[in-house]
Specification:
- This protein is about 50% helix and about 5% strand.
- By secondary structure, the protein is mostly helical.
- Among the domains are: about 160-285, no CATH class; about 290-425, no CATH class.
- A two-stranded antiparallel sheet has the order 1-2.
- Helix 1 (about 160-180) crosses helix 2 (about 185-205), helix 2 packs antiparallel against helix 5 and helix 8 packs antiparallel against helix 9.
- The longest helix has 29 residues, at about 355-385.
- The termini are far apart.
- Mean pLDDT is about 75; it is low at about 25-55, about 70-75, about 80-85, about 100-105 and about 145-155.
Length: about 425
């Protein structure tokens, strides 16, 4: 039984005659002017979506190219087989690559309508060749229209002097104003400085792998300063003991791993910051002349720092401790001692009627203690591998970078003033 040929009785392959292809666009015998080779401008052409010459939502043409709806109309009366002819181009002749106006929306030359205006090619921009010489890092090349970049430099002491002076004056006002207006407010300033200093120290020692618990340290430090203010020297030692014990108990909750290392770091911070700062509370809490004792100590420290800076910048030639602080010189140390001795001799004579030579002894001792405190923190920072304890204060670094000399100076000043100016209870 023979099956009917599904392809019909017509010959197959190349012997079969071509059939006319049903085209998707309208026939040519439609009304003249209804369809055109090029769409005419104006809103009436596509006012009604049913009058569009090509309403197929397919965004691709017969060759798989992406075209815009407005560009379909120019293919209405073309045979798709004509696209296979190589070199066919119905547009105006051109000698080389052309660029169509981007605002017209024709992405390629093939999709541009016939007669479209061709935008001229922009003139090529010739980039100037960079100079062969190397420029300094962080500086731009100067010209007539653009001057050289002015960079803020630092002095020989390694800090921004205007910023350091401004911040120093602000810190001085923060200390002096409470002492003069309401001395008890100085206790709040001192407690805040202790909390910030302990935070900076705990943050710095973490570089060595130690993680001292910060909460009991800050709480114990503030308690230590308060006890010294209200209860005297014995309460200061008690506050230190409570801080160390509280830190140890708190740290036990984290397990035995690294316990000795963390407790050692916590003890160092508790002694270095709140215990030494407690002597400032003892000085300020002295009856009748407590604010004057604090002012005399702080002025002696400021004179020491200023004299050392001026002498070191002007005459510094011989390093004092190159492995700890290369910028400190023996000439700067001599300037520190001289300025503190002369200033303290006059200051203590005016404030407490102490003989000038005893005031000079006071200045020398405070200056030596301040320099030792500065070297001690420099050694700690070198051991930890940090330049500053933080960047809290512009031109100074961290708060501990300013308290380092004061923390060593206040115990010395407390002991000497207790001898030279006995406290009257």
């Amino acid at each position: 039984m023979s099956h009917p040929d599904p392809y019909g009785s017509e010959p197959r392959g190349w012997d079969r005659a071509e059939r006319p292809v049903a085209l998707p666009w309208p026939e040519q015998d439609l009304e003249a002017g209804q369809w055109s080779r090029r769409p005419t401008a104006g809103p009436e052409l596509y006012a009604d979506p049913h009058t569009r010459p090509y309403a197929d939502p397919n965004p691709y043409d017969e060759r798989g190219r992406t075209v815009r709806p407005d560009d379909r109309d120019r293919f209405d009366d073309r045979d798709p087989r004509e696209d296979d002819e190589p070199g066919r181009y119905d547009g105006p002749p051109f000698d080389g690559p052309v660029r169509y106006d981007d605002a017209a929306g024709y992405p390629t030359a093939q999709l541009a309508p016939i007669g479209a205006e061709i935008a001229p090619d922009p003139e090529p921009v010739i980039e100037p060749e960079p100079p062969s010489g190397r420029r300094t890092k962080g500086r731009r090349r100067a010209s007539v229209d653009r001057p050289a970049t002015q960079q803020l430099g630092t002095g020989r002491a390694g800090r921004n002097l205007p910023a350091a002076i401004g911040v120093g004056l602000g810190l001085g006002a923060l200390i002096v104003v409470p002492l003069v207006v309401y001395p008890l407010a100085f206790l709040l300033v001192l407690a805040g400085a202790v909390a910030v200093g302990m935070w900076e120290m705990a943050r710095a020692v973490r570089r060595s792998g130690a993680h001292p618990p910060l909460v009991p340290l800050i709480a114990g430090g503030v308690l230590t300063v308060g006890l010294a203010w209200f209860a005297g020297p014995d309460a200061l030692s008690l506050g230190l003991l409570v801080t160390v014990l509280g830190t140890m108990i708190w740290r036990l909750g984290d397990g035995p791993a690294g316990f000795q290392r963390d407790l050692t770091a916590a003890t160092l911070i508790a002694v270095y910051v709140p215990f030494l700062a407690g002597f400032a509370a003892l000085l300020a809490a002295a009856p009748d002349d407590g604010p004057l004792r604090i002012l005399a100590t702080l002025i002696a420290v400021v004179l020491s720092d200023t004299g050392g800076y001026a002498a070191g910048v002007s005459f510094g030639r011989h390093p004092m401790a190159p492995s700890i602080s290369p910028k400190k010189s023996w000439e700067g140390f001599a300037g520190s001692v001289t300025a503190a001795a002369l200033g303290s001799a006059l200051l203590l004579w005016l404030m407490f009627e102490v003989a000038p030579w005893w005031g000079a002894v006071f200045g020398v001792a405070v200056s030596c203690a301040a320099v030792l405190g500065d070297l001690a923190e420099s050694m700690i920072k070198r051991d930890l591998g940090v330049k500053d304890m933080s960047n809290l204060l512009p031109g100074h670094g961290g708060l501990m970078d300013r308290l380092d000399s004061i923390l060593f100076a206040v115990p010395t000043a407390y002991l000497l003033l207790a001898v030279f100016v006995p406290v009257v209870n």
